Amino acid sequence: MSRTSTYIEGTALSLEQAQSILEVKKLKGINRDDEKELLNYKKAMDFIAKYIGKDDPIAEGIIRELHKITVKGVRGEKADPGNYRKIQNYVANSLTREIIYTPPGPLEVPHLMREFVDWINRVEDMSPVLTAGIAQFQFVHIHPFIDGNGRTAWLLSTLILYKTGYDFKRLFSISEYYDKDRPSYYKAIQTVRNNNMDITVWLGYFVTGLRSPMEEIQEKGKQIIKQDTALRKIKRAGLNARQEKAIKYLLRKGSISVNEYQSAVSCIRRTAQRDLDNLMEEGIIKTIAKSQTDPTKHYVLL
Fold this sequence. Notes:
The protein has 12 helices and 6 strands.
């Protein structure tokens, strides 16, 4: 068995396609390996979810099992699920096929993985986020498996965070941010090797990648609270059907003008203005001017 390179990983599925697959919907025109990889990744996430908040050490067997789940039935026997590689592999750019990194030789892998796992279990007085970031880099640097190292590394980082109480499995996958711009991810990884193994730039990138979706979730939470507050006000005020429709428009668009109100609810201008004035009296909306160059009065939720 031989393999000349391990290509940069990632499927061609869109977010919508991925969601449909996870909802067990059959899609046409998609690569079945991509579909299987996604389902395998979900199984692996379910596998590590049981470790949330637990103090059990991370054993090599757990990492091997994560790899086995991740690549089973996708890479065939070439990936040798759950077993460390016995041949030399290479990391290459999937487009140019240029080799960008040569991992340690196969004979070094068992020893390097023992040291690596021992470090994970011994590290103290360090933020779990930094531990996960260092582990992410170190794992892909060792590149212990023939294939599937990238996905297994993300799962391992997630496992480290889960064990220390970071339970965000229902909100996002930590690889979500990095998958949006794969070249930047690999560039950040490569900075460590190009700077005498200085991991500072990579850790900054890794932490930013965690913070970004968390901030998005926080903003979505604020919008949900705002929507809930508006809907409760609607019920108390006993608004008419036009006003309820306009409020839903506001929740989607953020603001509404008299003309937009007319169009959204199909009424004359005088009726639109009266409805909006009533919503202001009820303390549900307020007026704003969009900008100095656009003096048109707009209404937004309070």
